[in-house]
Specification:
The complex is a heterodimer.
Chain A lengths: L2 E5 L3 H11 L6 E6 L11 H6 L14 H4 L2 E5 L3 E5 L4 E4 L4 E3 L2 E4 L3 E3 L13 E2 L4 H10 L5 E5 L3 H10 L5 E5 L12 H13 L2 E4 L4 E5 L2 E4 L4 E3 L2 E4 L3 E3 L2 H4 L9 E2 L11 E3 L4 E5 L4 E3 L4 H15 L17 E5 L4 E7 L2 E8 L2 E8 L6 H8 L9 H6 L8 H9 L3
Parallel strand pairs in A: 1-2, 1-7, 2-3, 7-19, 9-16, 10-11, 10-16, 11-12, 18-20
Antiparallel strand pairs in A: 4-5, 5-6, 8-17, 13-14, 14-15, 20-21, 22-25, 23-24, 24-25
Chain B lengths: L1 E5 L9 H9 L6 H5 L9 E4 L4 E4 L8 H5 L5 E4 L2 E4 L9 H5 L6 E2 L5 E2 L13 H5 L5 E5 L2
Antiparallel strand pairs in B: 1-8, 2-3, 4-5, 6-7
The complex binds flavin-adenine dinucleotide and iron/sulfur cluster (SF4) (2 copies).
Chain lengths: 405, 143
Amino acid sequence: MSNYVIIGNGTAAVGCIEGIRSVDREGKITLVSKENHKVYSRPLISYLLEGKTDVERMKYRSDDFYDKNGVEFLPGISAEKIDTDKKEVTLDNGKSVSFDKVCVATGSTPFVPPFEGLDSVEKKFSFMTLDDALGLESAITPDSRVLIIGAGLIGLKCAEGIKDRVKEITVCDLADRILSSILDSECAGIMQKHLEENGIKFILSDSATKFEGNKAYMKSGLEVDFDVLVLAIGVRANISLVKDLGGEVNRGIVVDTKMATSVKDIYAAGDCAEGYDASIGANRVLAILPNAYMQGFTAGVNMAGGDKEFTNSIGVFGLHVMSAGSYDGECFEEKREGVLKRFFVKDNTLIGYMLIGETERAGIYTSMIRDKVSLDTVDFELLRKVATTFAFSDENRRKKFGGVV
Amino acid sequence: MKRVYVNEEWCLGCHLCEYNCAFANSGLKDMADALKGKNIYPRIHVEGDEKISYGVSCRHCEDPICVKSCIAGAISKVDGVVTIDRNKCVGCLTCVLVCPYGALAPSEEGTMQKCELCLKNSCGEPACVTGCPNRAIVYEERG
Ligand SMILES: Cc1cc2nc3c(=O)[nH]c(=O)nc-3n(C[C@H](O)[C@H](O)[C@H](O)COP(=O)(O)OP(=O)(O)OC[C@H]3O[C@@H](n4cnc5c(N)ncnc54)[C@H](O)[C@@H]3O)c2cc1C
Ligand code: SF4
Ligand code: SF4
């Protein structure tokens, strides 16, 4: 009987469990979870503060998930080391678990630069875990002025979550625009305007240099008073368990299309892993939830002796914009009142898009990226206007709707 | 498993399926109460032009990408039917971003909805199929 150990308890770990069980119902699975919670949906922490969900509903799987899948669940315990000679994982409670195959699904950790005076700030939080969100919730009042450092996805999600529960939110970023890693200037500008209309203030192209109690000193000379500080500068993949073994790492743990690392019997998946992304033709960390699930599932199947490859990518962002794939191709634009769509084309296939204002049925576009559909076989002009399956060839369409998919 | 299939040649493009769908899922007994003067939120959409048309609804995929992608774990496949737990859904649109058929759309309340084959509503079998005047939508077992 095989002996599997999964390190981490996020979406990638759930994917891995379900992947293993799709092949092997018998093998022993041990799950080591640093967070002392059953698996919850990480992106929902902002919706929790917003009141759109609660701790019960944000459970990613039902309470009996571990039992039903025959998983020995070790909550509140960290893995410290993988020993490939003894084939065991050392835990921080002094014990160890033996393995045949390991999946490292450790996610990432907020990166906090060594700001001068950060220690003098009493109420400061990252925004990564359920405990962070609950801590932040207990620190804010309707009179709070909140300063968020970082205008990326996590910083803005945090702002969205607490917007109606505090007096004032200021978001600052070193970049000249918000969401600089996924949007170009024009799209970012539209988005920023939308957020400003919702009462959020921005300080861009500027960074904090020093903190003194409840005051931040900016590089530009600006001083910002605040009551609560949120640090959302960026995250670093948790790669050390594999790095310490001498395994190949980069920004993330390098994996092949089967999610195997360079170390025998060790797999990795999710935000900690750097896999091949077909849309850019190179390796990258793709820190989004659907990717974590699919990589986890792929790892699980292969660990259990099945055969599955995964190279696809989908971009996600859920405010009022959507983006997917990559943008280094010829750009086609559709602009109407309140709607901006940009499509990026390379080698006669769609490789990416950004949509603002009209996101209906966007999955039709995403599937074209995923399946590398040749633009010769579709009515691309029609598709740029509306996402419709009618733009596909008759044959292709009949196959889609006449058969099992 | 039985699924909904369309026959382009027979579809009249009359959009009746959309109305029957909205009515079946309204929970109301009277069609006029459910639909008259209201924006409807059907789970099937007729696509095409004057010559060719056909209804599109969830395919209940063998390997459903929406289930894998839902950030809230709100979509699952139970006995072959892909269903949404609307209590867990937060309306983030990730599923809309991935479904290749454009089969999911927000409901009036903002949570997602899609065809669940009318198995849980009062109709008990797909209302689009029972109401189609030209048998252009069928509910049957195919390979
Ligand atoms: C605020 C926020 C909003 C987001 N919004 C979206 C969104 O809208 N859409 C989207 O697609 N994605 C979103 N994401 C990203 C998404 O949450 C991640 O891509 C996804 O959760 C990654 O899953 P994972 O399993 O790889 O890692 P994680 O969910 O991070 O799980 C890793 C787990 O491993 C544990 N761990 C680490 N080291 C050890 C160790 N040594 N021993 C034991 N356990 C360990 C960690 O404590 C953690 O619990 C968001 C993220 C945040 C923070
Ligand atoms: S919603 Fe879309 S992806 Fe999900 S099962 Fe239906 S057709 Fe497939
Ligand atoms: S909109 Fe709802 S069902 Fe769709 S991915 Fe988001 S939470 Fe899941």
